[in-house]
Amino acid sequence: MRLLDKIWEMAKSDVQRIVLPEGNEERTIRATEIILKDKMADIILVGNEEEIRNKAKEMCVNIDDAKIVDPEKSEKYEEYVNLFFELRKNKGMTLEKAREIIKDQMYFGTMMLKCGDADGLVSGAVHTTADLLRPGMQIIKTSPGRKIVSSFFIMDVPNREYGDNGIMFFADSAVNPNPNAEELACIAISTADNASSLTGAEPRVALLSFSSMGSAKHELVDKVVEASRIANELRPDLLIEGELQLDTAIVPNVCKSKAPNSKLQGRANVLIFPDLQAGNIGYKLVQRLANAEAIGPICQGFAKPLNDLSRGCSVSDITNMVAVTSVQAQKSKQ
């Protein structure tokens, strides 16, 4: 069974309420029909109900079981306005500004998540990543013990030789341009925890560099070494190692030669890139050259699950991200 199929089954085992702020967007409406038909999640669409239902009817799409919430008509509107004002008043927020901001579908959806009226949020078919992250950081904020929001990709590689039968986690490939050592350690821990919760496999984490266990000296290497030290100090229960070159991290024979004392033994399934340039290039190389399926970017580090989409996303991209977000919501409640 493909990993995505397993994630769908996990999502269906404990149905979560996922809010889609882009309620009148056509791909979102089509995805809603699929999700509801498969009983994978309860969907909340944000927007004008008459407009959304009319559009669904024109598209011959059945979204009868979706809950649709219009921000300005919602009984929760004033509650959300007042809470947002309290959260941001030290930043110069006024009630008047708050009333205008909460009319925005992204902010309203994020407030639903904050107040427990939804379990997860997925957006990005129309909005940019910044449009998602801004209300996320202002309202949801980071989870306890997490100092940074980051992202990861699940890479499903047809060549099953590496990772866990071809499944690997890459981070950070979408959010942080140049994390420092402490931030890199946090990214490693967050990704390891997500790898465990989404696959059930033991995370084996390699912090990547152009050096393996001291083979090169440079301040860029020093950052990765320090990140490894911090991560192991914070989470001694996890198998995290670095600095390692990519081939040392994932090829057992190379590891025996370059890092014979490595605990990973060339069997890493979680790869932590030293910066965004490397991470973004890395996942796209594997996606294109190895014909791998890249699932993501999936956000991590928020106190509650919210995830981004590409504006070029397909309907299946939306349904799959809702499934991932549902599983993250399940795990956040445990």
Q: Can you lay out the helices and strands and say which pair or pack?
A:
Elements (H helix, E strand, L loop, with lengths): L2 H11 L3 E4 L5 H13 L3 E5 L2 H10 L8 E3 L7 H12 L6 H7 L3 H10 L5 E4 L5 H12 L9 E7 L10 E5 L9 H19 L4 E5 L10 H16 L4 E6 L1 H5 L1 H7 L11 E3 L3 H14 L3 E8 L5 E3 L6 H18 L2
Parallel strand pairs: 1-2, 1-4, 2-3, 4-11, 6-9, 7-8, 7-9
Antiparallel strand pairs: 5-6, 5-10
Helix pairs in contact: 1-13, 2-13, 4-5, 6-7, 8-9
Helices and strands, in order, run as: HEHEHEHHHEHEEHEHEHHEHEEH
Name the helicity range: 40-55%
CATH architecture title of the largest domain = 3-Layer(aba) Sandwich
CATH topology of the largest domain: Rossmann fold
Q: What general outline do the C-alpha atoms trace? A: globular
Tally of DSSP β-strands: 11
Order of adjacent strands in the largest pleated sheet: 8-7-9-6-5-10
Number of helices: 13
Distance between the termini: 25 Å
* Unreliable stretches: none
Q: Note the main sheet.
A: 6 strands, mixed
Q: How many discrete domains? A: 2
* CATH class bucket of the largest domain: Alpha Beta
Our Rg estimate from Cα atoms comes to 21 Å
Q: Give the strand content.
A: 15-25%
On the 0 to 100 scale, the average pLDDT is 94
| Helical/strand content category | alpha/beta
Give a quick set of tags describing it.
single chain, 334 residues, Rossmann fold, 6-stranded mixed beta sheet, 5-stranded parallel beta sheet, 13 helices, globular
Question: How would you characterize this protein structure?
Answer:
With 334 residues, this protein is of the alpha/beta class. It folds into 2 domains: 3-141 and 305-332, Rossmann fold (3-Layer(aba) Sandwich); 150-293, Rossmann fold. It is built from 13 helices and 11 strands. It has a 6-stranded mixed sheet with strand order 8-7-9-6-5-10, with helices on both faces. The protein has a 5-stranded parallel sheet with strand order 3-2-1-4-11, with helices on both faces. Helix 1 (3-13) packs across helix 13, helix 4 crosses helix 5 and helix 6 (105-114) packs parallel to helix 7 (129-140). It starts with a helix and ends with a helix. The mean pLDDT is 94.
